[in-house]
Design goal:
Mean pLDDT: 74
Radius of gyration: 39 Å
Oligomer: single chain
Structural class: alpha/beta
Strand content: 5-15%
Number of strands: 15
Largest sheet: 5 strands, parallel
Shape: elongated
Low-confidence stretches: 1-45, 88-110, 128-186, 247-263, 265-317, 916-941, 984-993
């Protein structure tokens, strides 16, 4: 068995009482097979094709991602929102009833998983020496299919999403005391929801909500997949299963782009960019590539005092609990890639990729892109959704239900959860991995730490030149403090004035001023800036002490944010040089870059000319370093440690909240006004998308977009973040928008919350919605934001957890779940997360949890997963029911329309016949005019006329006989009187048996039409003959006979037209039934 982490299977055959020491002895394997786990793993992941410039075949995205317009029901969402804009959502008459059963009685997936896990462990115990893995059974492939059995305890009725496992290795569950057959049935208690579920009218506003919610989820999935960010697999499978089952004929117009395989070749010379046709680019939908060892790469240095086992013993070891430690000196020894034959060009604010074709002309690479107009349409739709009455009402009720359900779950299962974590050896809250996902590097230390550091530097580096004034004068550190008339002895935390207090509440401007120690911007530049006269040496030393504290704690990690302002194009190189020169690496620290939204300041000071220059300063160096690493070697190495981007600033600044299509493009935005929040987010996202596609094509790591959002300002900021952000920081305003909060729950979007920071700036601690979010099941974690302003202790993250636990009475299980969430939403690599959470952490439900690493019991994980699946099943059933109803209504409307049309024709014919009969009555003949009116003069007919009359008679007889024969044959073929069809005769009176009958019916119907046409021609001939008949004998008797003939002709004409129209109506109905055979079969089932 391979020694790679992906190939290892956790050893579950060991009894849960095995000592911690024995477990640790089995966590070491061959270090030569260990890759750079946190920073340089992306280099080692490059395949030979990627190193040679080849592009891997791009993925086939789901149709509903590339072409959301192919889902007709979702295209109706904007019209639905407008239609019910002024409708009262609490009107009982607006509650629609459904005609399909809602199956909610489905057993728990946890019990089935545990049963299979026990069986699997028993099989491994019996075959301890065998390494083969049995194949998956049918029951395993239907792991989440509901099997409802009688239970001796309350059972929750949840939905189950079909998620077959790839192998039984993914069923290897961590051992706890409850994982025993004797207590599987009572693993944990669930709530049973009983009632009449024949329809779903008891759930108010469900039908009004399901379409917009599904559309919103599809929108987010599209933006996440295109930018190579993550989207929950459970939700993705649900959307695919729900939306791809619609009638495929509705998607006839949708096509997936053709995929070719262009290459990125070594740069062979410059050519000009011409008007490009499109070529395709490779992209990989997953965020990581299976690790591979390059033959020419030096293996990482692993610090370990334990002997290295041979490869023969590796296959028997479980996956190690701790990743190998990379020496700081080796962290930036990353080999450079060769330059790729590709160039980039900014077009309307978004960078596009070009590669040369065979004729050396630059052609645009085809990869998923997001058009600004499409983004505006999606943004406008979501903005309208959050104000829709029925949708808000539905989402609020579901959120309240989730909160109440969690409270009941805790009441019923808190003891069992405690029992599970108590039976787990060694692990507790203090030694589970927890990540501070929202912390700024400039304030990552507490105020006392900064004070001690400043005093130390005053004593050890007082004579060092550290500051250059505006007039060019150099000052030592001692001179700077002498100018302030302050000595090291005088300094105190109160004098520093960096801690937030009650005066910063709702005053973000005062909070920003707290970054200046002693209120002096010069001290901020000296101590907490990377770009200053001393090249950020003091700041590097200060952060190394912070990283040292994190390393001492071992289980605490942080993603520090460094600033890039976009003022000049060389900022990235300066920051990268600072990192590489000072070896700013720690296994406990990841790096992010925050971009302040300060374009208006730069424009007012003449630093930038337009917004495009601001974007160029931000992204051009990143593209250059990715295409040709030798042009920016330090930046290329630093980018391996970078995990994502952040957008920061005061959200309360006045702005135009809505982005419109007539807004100027970045190269045209040269006014002094700052662009709105959503404008910033769109162009940052669009360029990160292009950068991620390029880096994935080259086998490098990709980046997340994790902006500050929802702390203050407009709720529409959260709409933009919902569309483009992997996760967000703060999210306080979600409490004001039930629709967005429910969508954040359904899509499991991470929210890094900082209650202590919010308490000093925007909302009191007891009003913070963090606990409410957590209870409802949103993916939330605790973070510190700015320890220098808000915390007092050496471990600010633990301080955050401890205060939250005290105020909200969080249990150890709750805090461990929050810690697990923080790891999941962090930007640390997939390989590192496998160590921290378990090799199967990406699996859904209990299969993705390892209690020995996370200390989160399977009961809690199963509850969260089942609650999410129930909400998805509710939406899925409602959507299916809605589609069935719409299809029924469409068919009925079509039939009624045709029936109404035929009825109008019949009435017109009858009215016309009566009018003609009345107008054609013979007029009385005056005796004065005709003296011998009483005589019946019998005039002989012309022989030619008699022959024509016989021909007319025969033709009419033949046509009528043909119509009757064909009609009888049709009736016989469709078997109206078949006794087997009696039960459904009312719903489906005519059913075709096979295609032969169908063809024969069509032929006979055509013959009937031909016969009708012949009859109509015959009537026309009879009219002509009657008009021209015997005009030579003009007398009263002939007139009377002619009048009687005309009357008979009119009656016959009326009857024939009536017969024709009735038969035509039947034919129309037949044709409609034949054209909708599939629909009728559905109704039959």
């Amino acid at each position: 068995m391979s020694g790679y982490p992906n190939d290892e299977i956790t050893n579950i055959g060991r009894h849960s009482s095995v000592s911690n020491g024995e477990w640790n002895q089995q966590t070491i394997y061959d270090a030569r097979n260990v890759l750079l786990t946190q920073h340089s793993v992306d280099v080692s992941q490059q395949t030979p094709e990627q190193r040679s410039g080849k592009i891997v075949k791009p993925p086939i995205y789901p149709n509903h991602i590339l072409h959301p317009e192919i889902i007709p029901s979702l295209d109706e969402v904007p019209a639905e929102l407008i239609k019910r804009r002024h409708k009262r959502f609490n009107d009982p008459s607006n509650i629609d009833s459904f005609e399909i059963e809602m199956p909610l009685a489905i057993a728990s997936s946890l019990q089935d998983e545990l049963e299979r896990a026990v069986q699997h462990r028993a099989a491994k115990d019996r075959n301890h020496d065998q390494t083969s893995v049995p194949e998956s059974t049918d029951s395993e492939n239907n792991l989440f299919e509901g099997v409802f059995e009688k239970e001796s305890y309350p059972i929750i009725e949840t939905i189950e999403i079909d998620e077959p496992l790839e192998s039984t290795a993914r069923q290897n569950l961590p051992r706890t005391s409850i994982y025993d057959k004797s207590c599987l049935r009572e693993a944990f208690q669930r709530i049973k929801i009983a009632g009449d579920f024949d329809d779903m009218s008891h759930i108010e506003d469900l039908e009004d909500a399901v379409g917009p919610l599904l559309r919103a989820m599809v929108i987010r999935e599209k933006y996440m997949i295109f930018s190579l960010q993550s989207f929950p697999p459970t939700v993705a499978k649900f959307l695919t299963k729900t939306l791809e089952q619609e009638d495929q004929s509705r998607r006839a117009s949708s096509t997936v782009r053709a995929n070719t395989e262009p290459k990125l070749r070594a740069n062979s010379g410059g050519t000009s960019v011409q008007t490009p046709p499109k070529h395709t680019i490779a992209s990989i939908s997953t965020r990581t590539i299976p690790p591979q060892v390059l033959p020419n790469q030096k293996p990482p240095i692993v610090e370990s005092n334990l002997p290295i086992k041979s490869a023969a013993h590796v296959s028997d070891d479980p996956h190690p609990f701790h990743p190998p430690v990379i020496k700081r000196d080796e962290a930036f020894n990353i080999p450079l890639l060769e330059a790729a034959d590709v160039c980039v060009k900014a077009e309307k604010g978004i960078y596009r990729l070009y590669i040369p074709d065979d004729t050396k002309r630059w052609v645009q690479v085809d990869y998923p892109v997001v058009d600004r107009n499409q983004f505006i349409d999606d943004y406008t739709l979501l903005s309208a959704m959050i104000t829709d009455g029925p949708l808000k009402s539905f989402c609020y009720r579901r959120l309240q239900y989730l909160k109440s359900r969690f409270e009941l779950h805790c009441l019923l299962n808190e003891v069992k959860e405690w029992a599970a974590i108590k039976s787990t050896p060694h692990r507790d809250f203090y030694n589970v991995r927890k990540v501070d996902t929202h912390i700024h590097a400039a304030s990552s230390m507490n105020q006392k730490h900064l004070l001690r550091f400043m005093k130390k530097k005053m004593k050890t580096s007082g004579d060092m030149h550290v500051y250059k004034t505006k007039d060019g004068k150099l000052m030592t550190l001692k001179e700077v403090f002498d100018e302030l008339k302050i000595t090291a002895y005088d300094l105190s935390v109160d004098m520093l004035g960096v801690h937030a207090d009650r005066n910063t509440f709702q005053r973000f401007d005062r909070f920003n001023a707290k970054y200046n120690p002693l209120g002096q911007s010069a001290l901020r530049e000296i101590f907490i800036k990377t770009d200053n006269y001393i090249d950020g040496v003091f700041f590097a030393d200060l952060l190394k002490e912070v990283m040292s504290d994190l390393e001492d704690s071992k289980y605490q990690h942080a993603e520090l944010r460094l600033s890039i302002y976009g003022r000049s194009v060389d900022e990235w190189d300066k920051l990268a040089n600072w990192c590489v020169r000072n070896t700013m690496y720690s296994a406990n620290v990841g790096w992010m870059v925050q971009i302040p939204r300060l374009y208006d300041v730069y424009r007012a000071n003449g630093i930038t000319k337009n917004f495009q220059e601001f974007l160029t300063n931000l992204f051009q160096p990143l593209f250059d370093a990715t295409i040709d690493p030798s042009s920016h070697p330090d930046l290329y190495r630093f980018m391996h440690h970078l995990t994502g981007f952040d957008s920061v600033d005061d959200e309360t600044k006045p702005e135009k909240p809505i982005i419109t299509a007539d807004m100027p493009y970045p190269e045209e935005w040269n006014m002094k006004d700052n662009p709105p929040y959503v404008y910033y987010l769109f162009y940052m996202y669009a360029n990160i998308l292009t950068l991620n596609q390029l880096r994935r094509a080259r086998g490098l790591n990709t980046y997340q977009f994790r902006p500050h959002c929802g702390e203050a300002g407009a709720v529409t900021h959260l709409v933009a973040a919902y569309m483009v952000a992997e996760n967000i920081s703060h999210g306080l305003l979600l409490r004001k928008s039930p629709v967005l909060q429910y969508l954040f729950y359904l899509c499991q979007i991470g929210i890094a919350m900082s209650p202590l920071s919010n308490n000093s700036l925007f909302i009191n601690y007891n009003r913070n919605p963090m606990l409410e979010y957590f209870e409802r099941g949103l993916c939330v974690s605790l973070s510190t934001d700015d320890p220098m302003q808000f915390h007092f202790t050496k471990e600010p993250l633990m301080e955050e957890y401890s205060i939250a636990a005290q105020v909200w009475k969080l249990s150890s299980v709750d805090m461990c779940e929050l810690a697990r969430n923080s790891v999941l939403m962090s930007g640390f690599s997939h390989e590192v997360k496998m160590y921290w959470l378990g090799p199967e952490y990406q699996e859904s439900g209990v299969a993705g949890n390892d209690i020995r690493r996370t200390n989160v019991p399977a009961i809690r994980i199963a509850y969260r997963y089942e609650a999410l699946c129930e909400e998805l099943r509710l939406l899925g059933n409602a959507y299916k029911c809605r589609q069935d109803r719409k299809e029924k209504d469409r068919l009925l409307h079509q039939m009624e329309k045709k029936s109404t049309s035929v009825t109008k024709i019949e009435r017109a014919v009858l009215n016309n016949g009566k009018h003609e009969s009345t107008s054609n009555l013979p007029k009385p003949i005056s005796s004065a005019t005709n003296g011998n009116s009483g005589n019946n003069i019998n005039m002989s007919r012309n022989p030619t006329t008699n022959v024509k009359g016989a021909a007319f008679h025969k033709q009419a007889k033949d046509n009528l006989q043909s119509i009757l024969d064909n009609f009888n044959a049709i009736i016989s073929l469709i078997r109206v009187d078949d006794p087997q069809l009696n039960p459904i005769k009312d719903q489906l009176p005519r059913i075709l048996t096979n295609t032969t009958d169908d063809f024969e019916i069509r032929v006979r119907a055509y013959n009937m039409v031909r016969a009708f046409e012949s009859l109509l021609k015959l009537v026309s001939d009879l009219k002509d003959q009657a008009v021209l008949y015997d005009f030579r004998a003009i007398n009263d008797a002939v007139k009377a006979q002619r009048q009687r003939f005309k009357n008979q002709q009119s009656d016959l004409d009326t009857k024939l037209i009536s017969l024709r129209d009735r038969l035509a109506l039947e034919l129309v109905k037949f044709e409609d039934e034949y054209a909708n055979k599939s629909s009728f079969k559905i109704l039959k089932e």
